UniProtKB/TrEMBL annotation:
Protein name per Swiss-Prot or TrEMBL: prolyl oligopeptidase
Any coiled-coil regions, as ranges: none
PANTHER family to which the protein is assigned, alphabetical: PROLYL ENDOPEPTIDASE
Recorded GO MF terms: oligopeptidase activity; serine-type endopeptidase activity
Gene3D superfamilies per record: alpha/beta hydrolase, Prolyl oligopeptidase, N-terminal domain
Cellular component annotations (GO), alphabetically ordered: cytosol
Reactions it catalyzes: Hydrolysis of Pro-|-Xaa >> Ala-|-Xaa in oligopeptides
Family recorded in the similarity comment: Belongs to the peptidase S9A family.
One GO BP annotation of this record: proteolysis
């Protein structure tokens, strides 16, 4: 069976998973043929009469070294409010001016002051406990009122519809996953563009005609039924596939006969946190499930909140009712444990992985299914469990099988190796382990995939970037480096008996490349098999840098910054900072459409902070942000935000933070601890009630990272940062300031049975009461709203249109709150004809379109600051600084960072200054118009 990161292997289990982040941007470059410049040069004479104090290098279409020393010095100079131009300098406090057009009237929510819990002698009120019941009429009424409030706010967000239209345009491109092989067939997933769900295709060969095998879009009218897992039998005779509805984690498994695409009557229900693994005889498959809930078929699966307990391993025989499935393993004495299984590639063993929680540790058992006297059939109708042998029977480390040669197994493990290593053991001598590939001093061993007999592709994470090597399975020795760009390996698809491997790659500026490599070649060549192309996207418009920011305790935290090239560090840019920091999960470079859009059209700088708690540097990095050290996550994220401000990328009023799931907790904690540092906050499906999270669905598995309030010591950790219990009025603590909470959107969904909606609902009610409705005239004028989606869950399986709508809503909200307006006529929207050189300065050459056409040209906008910067480019700096101090422009057009239309700006210049400029004429007027459009 193919090994692919997008398949269900059963080797890795994360009961709490991150949502996909933000999106990242790309770049625009133009070809530049040389043509006549006489008309352009006459315009330069006019421009030399004006100048400005600062120049932003982001306006250059192209520059070749050397750059002007004046510009170089400005760009490198650290920025703070005192060093900014007068028209950009602002106070560091959040202020009390509402970002919405009028003060919001929040719906009232009943407070039940009688609900008080005693935690080890400390009394904690929980007045919104009633919101924990999703089926109560009172909860439904609360949700309905919040939805109406949020809709009213979003309708006032001017960029929302433009964002939705642009997202729809940008999402409409073909998307492919890497092919995988089963039997003698190839399979792959493909979305033509705006299909709600991706479609599974089959073909006889890589250049054969593909056929649709399974189209999930036919399973529902609105695209909310998604394919959540799948597995093809050894000879490619059957496809077992799991579907989930409305984003719930509950899965129902069906079986299709591949040859004629007939769906068999088999139905396997109440599956969750499972793999599907066929035995090689094709008679059936292993899977994991929970007991059916009490309400059974009447239950709207995914809306319940009761704890998930008693996870069990079963085997389903094809053509039989689920009631006849054999129970292979359970542990009634440890109801919180979860387990999953996989069949080895040689078909001899079934491997059982048991997890106690979300820590990267597991027990490892195996069963020789070929040696069973009567096979698996011998267990039908019996209560006897399979005779698993316990190779590892403690939760002291992670053991993940990489390959086996009969009884000799190779494992990836973190046993005495927080960055992981490869070890080997013969099942006949279970106490004799040997090291195959030792732990790296710096890099984390993420995976090893065996291919072409005894070769393995080893995937390392080096400073949050993937590195691939080809090594010998037997000795661990290095054979070749497999070159890839700076980014992430998104999937690896291969079989041991094949020499061909497929590798998926992505980065902030790479939508997706699938490489194919024949490892039998003397020097393996990474060839591009497919490359994703997003129409209108040019990666050269942007640049990516990685910085290392000192946290509160001095630990260096890596952070990626994606921005338009040569931006001026003047603190004026809207910025979006994303983080996660938990459960040993890495946030590596990735591409998303929404990031491209907001970077291009809202001029947003995109940042990803790889804070502690994740797995970017191994298990030690993870543990440094968990349990008693969880505060390190928040300190790291706050330090990253402070760096963006101090380095001149942005200003607190222009900074938005975003995170989902554990990242939602991150956002909630940080706005409590530093409300002055952020202008906007987007918290998706966050864990907000840190005292009760373990009581709902799979929350008990998260105690490995958080602890549990039932333990007194751990309660003391949790109460200090729990978002729900630390909402404070900042103006009470500092009466002399006007600090308030940032504009906040809490996002959740009615079928999220991972982090149930009650977390966001209780925090929403608390924030609105403490900050807004409990005071007659509250200083909190920044809105606090909740986006509560229907027929959606924690994020997986969400159809394309729902993703577009949510991104338009949250970034439309961000745009308004940060005062980040839409650029009406971005450069790539204008129909560009021939180009002419604008001017030359030494080896610097700059070009501008000779002719610009297209709708909306007369409504093109630019910032006054951009206008001043443009003048500074080629004009006398001293005279320009004196001229820029005049208040004429600001009085006529408002603040310098606002937008004005090009025609109105040109008219103003002609009326007030044209008479003083002898060289001004119609030709130079046109030249200036080209310059202005070039800037935008």
């Amino acid at each position: 069976m193919a090994t692919s990161l997008h398949q269900q292997n059963g080797n890795i289990f994360h009961p709490i998973l991150i949502q996909s982040p933000i999106s990242q941007p790309m770049m625009l470059t133009w070809t530049r043929p040389i043509t006549a410049i006489e008309r352009i040069n006459r315009g330069i004479a006019f421009l030399r009469n004006f100048t400005a104090a600062h120049f932003s290098t982001r306006h250059l279409v192209k520059q070749r070294q050397p750059r002007l020393s004046y510009l170089r010095n400005v760009r490198k100079k650290p920025t703070n409010s005192r060093s900014l131009p007068r028209y950009l300098s602002t106070s560091s406090s959040m202020g009390s001016i509402s970002a919405v057009d009028e003060l919001l009237v929040y719906p009232s929510a009943r407070r039940d002051e009688s609900v008080v819990d005693n935690y080890h002698g400390t009394l904690i009120a929980d007045p919104y406990r009633w919101l924990e019941d999703p089926d109560s009429e009172e909860t439904k009424e609360f949700v309905e009122k919040q939805v109406k409030l949020t809709d009213s706010v979003l309708k006032s967000c001017e960029t929302r519809d433009k964002l939705r239209d642009k997202l729809t345009e940008l999402y409409d491109f073909p998307k492919y996953d890497a092919p995988f092989r089963a039997g003698d067939k190839y399979f792959y997933f493909h979305n033509t563009g705006l299909q709600p769900q991706k479609v599974l295709y089959i073909q006889d060969s890589l250049d054969g005609e593909p056929e649709v095998l399974l189209d999930p879009n036919t399973l529902s009218d609105d695209g909310t039924v998604a394919l959540s897992m799948y597995s093809v039998s050894e000879e490619a005779k059957y496809l077992a596939y799991g579907v989930s509805s409305s984003g719930s984690d509950w899965v129902t498994i069906k079986v299709m006969r591949i040859e004629d695409k007939i769906v068999e009557p088999d139905t396997v229900s109440w599956v969750k946190f499972s793999s599907i693994s066929w035995t090689h005889d094709g008679n059936g498959f292993f899977y994991s499930r929970y007991p059916a809930p009490e309400d059974g078929e009447k239950l709207d699966a995914g809306t319940e909140t009761n704890a998930n307990l008693h996870h069990e391993l079963y085997y389903h025989f094809l053509g039989t009712d689920q009631s006849e499935d054999i129970l292979c393993w359970n542990d009634p004495h440890n109801p919180k444990q979860t387990r999953t299984a996989s069949v080895t590639e040689d078909g001899k063993y079934v491997l059982l992985y048991t997890f106690e929680n979300c820590d990267p540790v597991n027990k490892f058992y195996y069963c020789d299914i070929l040696a069973l006297p009567n096979g698996l059939e011998g267990y039908k109708g019996k209560k006897e469990l399979l005779p698993f042998i316990k190779l590892v029977d403690s939760f002291d480390a992670c053991y993940e099988s990489v390959a086996n040669d009969d009884t000799v197994f190779t494992f990836r493990t973190n046993k005495d190796a927080p960055k992981y290593k490869l070890v080997r053991v013969d099942l006949k001598e279970p106490n004799s382990w040997s090291e195959v590939l030792k732990e790296s001093e710096k890099d984390v061993l993420e995976s090893a995939v065996v291919v072409s007999g005894n070769k393995m592709v080893v995937n390392y994470l080096s400073d949050v970037k993937n590195v691939l090597q080809l090594r010998d399975l037997k000795t661990g020795s290095l054979l070749h480096h497999l070159p890839i760009g700076i980014g992430s390996v998104s999937e690896i698809s291969a079989r041991r008996k094949d020499s061909i491997i497929f590798i998926g790659f992505t980065s902030f500026l790479t939508p997706g490349i699938i490489y194919v490599c024949d490892l039998e070649a003397e020097i393996p060549d990474m060839r591009t098999f497919r490359e994703t192309v997003v129409p209108g996207f040019d990666r050269t418009e942007f640049e990516v840098k990685q910085v290392f920011v000192p946290s509160k305790d001095g630990t260096l935290i890596p952070m990626f910054i994606v921005a338009k090239k040569d931006i001026c560090l003047d603190g004026s840019h809207p910025s979006l900072l994303y983080g996660y920091g938990g459960f040993n999960i890495n946030i590596t470079p990735y591409f998303t459409v929404s990031g491209v859009m907001i970077a291009r059209h809202l001029d947003t700088i995109l940042c990803v902070a790889n804070i502690r708690g994740g797995g970017e540097y191994g298990e030690e990095w993870h543990k440094a942000g968990a349990l008693a050290k969880k505060q390190n996550c928040f300190d790291d994220f706050i330090s990253a935000a402070e760096y963006l401000v101090s380095a001149g990328y942005t200003h607190p009023k222009k900074l938005c933070i975003e995170g989902g799931s554990n990242g939602g907790l991150l956002v909630g904690a940080c706005i409590n601890q530093r409300p002055d540092l952020f202008g906007c906050a987007l918290a998706h499906v966050g864990v907000m009630d840190m005292l009760r999270f373990h009581k709902f669905t799979i929350g008990h598995a998260w105690t490995s990272d958080y602890g549990c309030s039932e333990n007194e010591e751990e309660f003391q950790w949790l109460i200090k940062y729990s978002p729900l219990h630390n909402v404070r009025r900042p103006w009470d603590e500092s009466p002399e300031t006007t600090t308030q909470y940032p504009s906040t959107m809490l996002l959740t969904a009615d079928h999220d049975d991972r982090v149930v909606p009650l977390h966001s609902l209780k925090l929403l009610a608390t924030m609105q009461y403490v900050l807004c409705t409990s005071l007659e005239k509250s200083p909190q004028t920044n809105p606090i709203i909740g986006r509560i989606e229907s027929k959606a869950g924690h994020g997986a399986g969400r159809p394309t249109q729902k993703m577009i709508d949510e991104a338009a809503d949250r970034y439309g909200f961000m745009s308004k709150m940060l005062d980040a307006p839409w650029s009406k006529v971005p450069a790539n929207h204008l129909k560009r004809c021939s180009k002419v050189p604008l001017f030359s300065e030494g080896s610097d050459e700059h070009y501008v379109d000779q002719k610009i056409t297209g709708e909306g040209e007369n409504e093109a906008e630019m910032q006054l600051q951009d206008f001043l910067d443009l003048l500074a480019l080629k004009c006398n700096p001293r005279e320009g600084r004196r001229w820029a101090r005049y208040d004429d422009l600001q009085k006529s057009f408002g603040k310098t960072t606002g937008l004005v239309t090009i025609p109105s700006l040109l008219s103003y210049i002609r009326i007030h200054y044209l008479q003083q400029v002898e060289c001004w004429n119609q030709a130079s007027y046109k030249t200036f118009k080209f310059l202005s459009l070039w800037v935008t």
